[in-house]
Amino acid sequence: xxxxxxxxxHRPGVASLYRRxxxxxxxxxxxARLREGNASLPETxxxxxxxxxxxxxxxxxxxxxxxxxxxxxxxxxLAVEEAVRGAGWGVALVEAAVSAAAALGETRMxxxxxxxxxxxxxxxxxxxxxxxxxxxxxxxxxxxxALAPHALEGVSGDVRPRGRxxxxxxxxxxxx
Length: 176
Fold this sequence. Notes:
Number of strands: 9
Largest sheet: 9 strands, mixed
Radius of gyration: 16 Å
Structural class: alpha+beta
Distance between the termini: 56 Å
Number of helices: 5
Shape: globular
């Protein structure tokens, strides 16, 4: 098994893996709304490849913003083929994505997931109510990690894809 940057040739295998591992409900999750119409950060997207070249795991990251001023990286989805789960490959994929995001100068990362699992890769629950996802989500599953010192201090607000105006900002623009 080998972890590599995702390339265009991996995309069919990644799509198939996500269908099998995450099912059709993957599109209804709050984090999926942040990926719709958004482009991933390709330097932070990794695949787990077996000896025959098949995709056995994947993680992707996306540019989002919290509030009006906190650029953040959204991690997910993460999927690992059932046959290779439990061997640490999921955490290794997450760690590769976190390292790549930090190398790009990203300063904070968030995800929606299981705290005990992602805690192994340095994530912790966000301050309850500080981050407002675009849809229903268990606040205890909103996890964050600082990629730079003090990067999480004071961070709060609606989470949305980078480059999109919040409804409040869109309203303010039309009033002017």
